[in-house]
Every structure is written in C-alpha cells, then in structure tokens.
Amino acid sequence: MTVGVREQPRGADSPRPRPGARPGLVGWLTGLAVLAGVGYRLWLLTQAAPPTNSDEATMGLAALHIARGEDFPVWFYGQQYMGTLEAYLAAPVFALAGGPSLLGLRLPTLALYTLFLLLAWRLTLRLTGDRWFGLLMVALLALGSDRIVKNQLIAGGGYPEMNAAGAALAVLAVELATGRPGRRSAGSGEPDGRATGTGRPGWRLARWATWGFLAGLMLWVDPLVLPYVAATGAVLVGFCRRELWGAAGALLGAAAVLGAAPLLLHSLLTGRNPLHAVLAASGANASAGWTDRLHGGLVLGPGLGMGFCAPGQCATWQLWWALALPLLLAIATVTAWRALRTREPAAVGPGTVSPRVAAAVRLALVLAAVVTLGAYTVSSSAGLTPVESSRYLSCLLISLPALLWPVWAAARHGLRTAVADRHGVGSTLTRSIAVVVLAATLGTAAHATWQAAQTVPATRAAEARHTELVSTLRQLGVRHVRAGYWTCNRLTFASDEQVVCAVVDDTLRPGFDRYPAYRREVDSAAAPAWVAPTGSPLAEVLDERQRVTPGSLDLVTIEGWRIYLPR
Predict the structure, then answer these.
(1) pTM of the entire structure?
(2) Where are the beta strands (DSSP E) in 376-499?
C-alpha cells in the first residue's frame, strides 16, 4: 500500500451525508450491527461471562457500601489511584434491586459500551462522511475477543468508561472546531456554527463544559486515556484558541476541576500524589529486559489488546496485526498531515465538517495511539506480564477510524475505477492490498470472538461451583473465613457480606486485604474456617496440616472447593 492514497472526492451530485439524514439500507445494517454487539455482550452477562474475580468484587463491595451509605470511597480499595466511578454507577442498581449481584454490577458497563459504540459511529461519520465505513467500524467494534469483552464488561476499574470518554472527547472536539465563531458556511453569509446550530452560545458553552468535565473525570478515573485528552485538547487549542481566552476557556477549566474534584480534594487532604502510585503500579519500580518489553509491547500487545487473539494467547498467524499496525500508523499520519496542510475551501456547506478539522482530529487520534503504544512498550509491565497487561492498550480502539480510513479509501477507490483503469497495475495492487487488510481485520477479530464464545460454558460452570460454595458456607453457618486473594473479596461480595474473608498467602500468613475492616473482623472471630480451590497450593498446605495434626480440621468438599472447619 502506498502512502499517497488520496481520499476520493464525492462530486456535487453526491453530497457528504449528515449523521441525522434518513438511514436507508446502510442505516438499517448499522442498527443491526449495534444490536448484535450489545446483544452479544448482554448474552455474555447472562452467562456470568467474562469470568469475574476478586478485583471486580472489590469494586462491587465499594458499590454496596455506597448504596448503603456506609462509605464513599475515592479510590479503588487498597490503593491510591483508579477512581471508583463504576461503583457509583452500580450503587443505584444495587439499591433498586435490593442487593448486590454480578449482573447489577455490570449493567452500567454494558451501557458504557453501548455509548462507546454509538459515539464511535458518530465520530467516524463526522471525520469521513462515509456511512459504509461507519458500518464497517460498528461491525468491527461489535465483535469482542476475550481481552476486549473483559475490558468492556468487567467492572474492575477504569477500562469500560475510558473508551466512551475518549470517543466523546473526540466528537466534541470535531463539533467545537467545526462550529467555531467566524467560520462561514456556503451561501449563508453567517458563521457556520450559527447556521448549523453548533455555534449557538448555549450549545457551544455546554459542549465546552462537557469536554472539560470529561477530561477532569478521566484524570480521576484512569490516566491511561490522557493521551487522547491531550491530543483532542491540542485540536481545540489549534482551531479555537481565541475562544478559549474568553468564557469558553473559563467554563472548560471550571468543569475540568469539577470532574477531577475527587482526586484534587483527596490529594489536598492527605498530601499524597496519586502519580506516584500510578507509576508504581505500572511496573516502573520493577525490572524487565528490553527484549521482553519490545516483544510484549509491539508483538503480543497489539493483537491481544485490540481484539485479534484467542483467550490468553496469540497464535503465530494472529500476530499479523503487529506487523500491520506500524504501517497503518505511518500511513494514517502521512495522509492526515497532507490533508491538514491542504488549503480549506472558501465556503463549506452547513453541517459539513471542515476537511482540515477532520484531518486534524484523525492526526490527533493517530498520535494518541502512538503515545499509548510507546508508553506501554517502555513500561516493565509489557515485559513482565504481557498477556494480562495488554489491557493497557484498550484505548487504541478509539483510533480505529483514523487508522483504517486510508485503507478504506484505497479499497473504495479501487471498486470505482478498477474497470476503467485497466493499465493501472500499481493502483490495482494497492487496492487489492487494502481489501485484503480490511478482510483480514474483520476475519481475525471474528475468529477471536468465536474463540472467546467457546469458553462461555466453562465460565458458567465455574460460576455455578462458586455459587454452590457460598450456599454451602451459609448452610454450615460459617461467618468468617481465611482464603487466598483471588477467593476472598469475590466470596464476600457474592455472599452480600454474610461471609467475611481475610486474605492469606500459600504459607498461611496474612496477605493483602484491600478492605482492612474484614481482616479485623476475621481476626476477632472465635474459629474462622479456611477455603481453598481444589488442587491449589493453599489446599496442599492445609491438607498437610491435617496429616501432621489429625483431627484439628474437619474437611468439607464440594466440586472445585475444599472447606476446612476448625474443631
């Protein structure tokens, strides 16, 4: 594929469609794709998939405490970073439902995914004006590999809301830069914003406030999306700098402070810098070789993090995306830069995005993707835990419209001129490569989605075994237990705090309790029980204790679990 692919002009008889126009066939297909993406994820939720864990249960416990009015945490329990927005969103669900549940915890994340899908469609249309390309983006984002649905549905902190917020920031940047005061529309004799409605003072100020609030909110929730905050903010500075010196800038700043208020107030009251905790969690204090970092960040990371790999692993053939991504980043950068440097038409039709604004936002999305990929690659997490840490690349999905637009433009150009241009061998090759890349992208993502769906029966069975564990503990009258980290908070959440758990390691020593009150309650209990997964190192240690001191523990076994009751 050559770098100089040009986007084909749509002639005067084929104006660029507006997002609010009548849908037609492509509109109905897009709607079906949205329903398929949301329906697939709703089906996963009804099957207790993707599998939950104690980290997600920790967010659920925070939501439970908020719903009861017992606690209003700023940060994820046990750490000084990652805001608890998901807990505050789930708390009303718990209050209305009369108690906690995994489905209730995840319904807000499903809503956030739906919002992201609609915003990505809107962003694609505003940047390209091509409804068929918008359909392609929706279809691609409707698919969901193991890593993708975990990022989008598990309420473990930050990931479900980042993509929705990043897409919203980009859409708002397009709207504000397009309707900036002083931009004239064709035949109207007045600023384009006034002609389209985007320039009305009330609407524009509301957009400025929304952009600022989302930027501040994401600073509290998770800093991984900050490259997109900075990139779209740079677009606003480039196109609206004069407006930012007035009321718009003041309102944006005030809204940003409001969005980041939990972080700012906590930092002022405690004197702690949350940036230090973020750097520590990213692996900045750990060591990993550069070979491992480059392999995890540039080879495994793109395929896993963007939805092209099987659960927990990447087959060799699925790694093709790691080779394609740098080329796509380069091509998208060059084409967006060339379009940005092109002189803007003297007059632009009402409701139409300026070509330079569209190019600037596409370039911003590409640069944000480069920063995200680079920051992850240089971190030790990419080398130490590449499979699980690939979630740090979640925000790259926001950049997909910008990455694939040059490929789509090349493919569409080929479909229009292949018959007439019989001697254009080079162009035909470029078009063929573009079609292959698009087909491979959809095909690989669809295959990874199918592989993820194959794991659902095992996940549902594991959840049923855990439900039986909770029921058994209640029947035995067990109120306090000691267990491993990945058992404890999940057990406490699933039992609605009727069973309280304190963490121990594999040597029976106290472990990391994210909510210290549980530790204090278990330590004060007369005879806490022990719970361990069958075949785990903790179970082996407890079995050895039984052999050394016969009669000290009564063993109750159920499928997948071992319960040790002190006599």
Answers:
(1) 0.90
(2) 480-483
